[in-house]
Structures are given as structure tokens and as C-alpha cells.
Design goal:
This protein is of the alpha+beta class. Helix content is 24%, strand content 38%. It has 3 helices and 10 strands; from the N terminus they run H-E-E-E-H-E-E-E-E-E-E-E-H. The chain has helices spanning 2-29, 65-71, 168-175, and strands spanning 38-48, 51-56, 59-64, 81-86, 92-97, 105-114, 120-125, 128-133, 149-154, 160-165. The protein has a 5-stranded antiparallel sheet, covered by helices on one side. The longest helix is centred in the N-terminal third of the chain and has 28 residues, at 2-29. The relative contact order is 0.14.
Length: 181
């Protein structure tokens, strides 16, 4: 009987330890690139009609000059090094001059509205309603219904660059009245 009780205490301690370790990793990871995203560094090789080509070790990617303006960066020139953030589909969602990597914030809340005509999203958070402009039209096509708990990734320009359903960890962090950066 005593041996069984000790085994239960050990197992419970191990499970609690794993939970604490994993929740710490999840929160620490939120300060770097989002889950499913990756960063690559490359060099701008060509510019044609406002479209830049960036050569990276994993392939060539295209950027527009307008994306730099939206993020508040100078437009890179041929030969400049840039850091790209790619989403889970390898689409460029963010580009920064090398050494000027952005600081993104994450907000979790209930999806109140995702504009069909206007490119914006509204969330209900513990701090009240927040409205953000959408950076890419593809975000609006995600099959997430109004009222769902979501997390938005907002770049340093205040624009939503990614949206996904909130994980249990994100929901619990938000329930405590905090947004994670």
C-alpha cells in the first residue's frame, strides 16, 4: 500500500514537473518567431518595378517596396542583407534590414469581427476591445468563426501579420489579464 502511494506521488510530481517545464518553454518561445514560422537571412539580388528578389540558402523570395513602407523600414537596395519571416506556407510575412529585427506582440482574445470590406480585425481582450489592421488578405480567409478564442501576431507597425486559434496556454495567459510579447 505504501509503495503504491509513493509511486503515485512520484508520477504526479513527474507530470507536474513536465507541465511546468513545457509551459515555460511555450512562453519563452513566444518571444522569438511564432510557432510554424521561420527566419531566413538573404541578400537582395534584383529589383524590377517595385518587386525585390531576395536570395537565401533555402530559395528565392519576392518582396514589394510597399511592404517595407508599411513596416516603417527603408526599402532595401540590391546588395542589402535582409531577414525574412516566413509563415507555415513559406510565404514572406515580414522583412527587416539585417540587424533591425522586429519585436512582435501577441494578443489573445475573443474574435469579435474580421472585416469583409475593411482590412481590420477586432478582438475582445481583458484590456477591452482592440482593433488592428490586417497586413495580408490571406488572413481573412482562415476558417475561424466569430466568437472563437484567437491569437494575433502584431508587428512593430501595429499590423496583424498572423492569426491562429488560441492554444490552451495562450488562453490561460490571457485569462490572467496579460498579453505576451
Amino acid at each position: 500500500m505504501n509503495r503504491t502511494m509513493n509511486l503515485h506521488v512520484i508520477m504526479l510530481s513527474a507530470v507536474m514537473g513536465m507541465f511546468l517545464i513545457m509551459s515555460g518553454i511555450g512562453y519563452a518561445d513566444s518571444k522569438s518567431v511564432s510557432h510554424g514560422h521561420k527566419q531566413v537571412t538573404g541578400v537582395v539580388t534584383t529589383e524590377k518595378g517595385g518587386v525585390l528578389t531576395v536570395k537565401t540558402p533555402t530559395g528565392d523570395y519576392s518582396l514589394t517596396e510597399n511592404a517595407s513602407h508599411r513596416h516603417g523600414h527603408a526599402v532595401p537596395k540590391v546588395g542589402d542583407e535582409v531577414t525574412l519571416v516566413l509563415d507555415e506556407n513559406n510565404a514572406v510575412i515580414e522583412a527587416h534590414p539585417k540587424g533591425e529585427e522586429g519585436i512582435h506582440q501577441f494578443y489573445t482574445g475573443k474574435l469579435v469581427y474580421m472585416g469583409k470590406m475593411n482590412k481590420e480585425i477586432k478582438l475582445q481582450t481583458p484590456d477591452g476591445e482592440k482593433v488592428f489592421p490586417l497586413g495580408r488578405l490571406e488572413i481573412k480567409t482562415k476558417p475561424i468563426e466569430e466568437g472563437a478564442m484567437v491569437t494575433v501576431e502584431v508587428n512593430e507597425g501595429g499590423t496583424v501579420i498572423d492569426l491562429h486559434r488560441a492554444s490552451d496556454d495562450e488562453t490561460s495567459i490571457n485569462a490572467k489579464g496579460k498579453t505576451h510579447e
